[in-house]
Amino acid sequence: MRVGIIGRGGMADALGTQWRRAGHEVVTGSRSGGLREAAEFGTDAVLLAVPYEAVVEVVGGLREVLLGKVLIDCTNPVGPGFGLLTSGGPSAAERIASAAPSAHVVKAFNLCHEDVWRLTPPVFDGRPLAVPLCGDDEGALTVVRRLVRDLGCEPLNAGGLDQAGLVEATAALLIRLWVGEGADAQAISPPRAYAGT
User: Fold this and answer.
1) Which of 52, 133, 151, 178 is spaced 20 to 30 A from 44 at the CA atom?
2) pLDDT (tens digit, 9 = 90+) per residue, 94-145?
3) Do the Cβ atoms of 48 and 96 come closer than 8 Å?
């Protein structure tokens, strides 16, 4: 696949490196150069890997280039004190979809630090990492599921784009626990057998 990555930070490098390793063609660009070229190159998918504060403006400036494209949002609208900057809605993913209404936005890859995406593959105690996806277009979700599997991970259906706010809030909570408290965030979730029916 041809994947364009908007951003040249840690997430862009980690995911881009793994997708290249899986055989995909990847071109990156940033606000300092190559932004439009990366978006144009991503005929199969475009990953948004810029800070949340800049993402709506960046996407709005590429609106016509993103026409009909699969647009993967891995941003986290987390601010000082680990607060959710989009509290009360709409979610970051929904704001991105409004800025590029002709694109097919999928929320994914936002729950883990870049170092996790550098693992080949991200498997913990024999269990592949699961990646929740939110999106409304089945074709776009199919593309992103493949990119998830190419990392050695398992895609999970987390609902339509209207559910992306829940995934973003989960990221804010996990970051608060991991970074703010130094806690093992996995400890808050029981094994599935105890989760009820």
Assistant:
1) 52
2) 999 999 999 999 999 999 999 999 999 999 999 999 999 999 999 999 999 9
3) yes
- Say if pTM beats, i.e. exceeds, 0.85: yes
Nearest to residue 171, comparing CAs of 104, 97, 116?
116
Distance in angstroms (rounded) separating the CA atoms of residues 96 and 108: 13
Both structure tokens of 103? 């694109």
φ, ψ of residue 134 to 5 degrees: the values are: -120, 130
Chain centroid to Cα 194, Å, comes to: 29
Q: Which helix (H) or strand (E) holds 71?
A: strand 70-73
- Report helix, strand or coil for 29: strand
Strands 130-135 and 104-107: antiparallel
Written as six digits, the tokens of 98 are 């409004």
Nearest by Cα to 1 from 26, 21, 34: 26
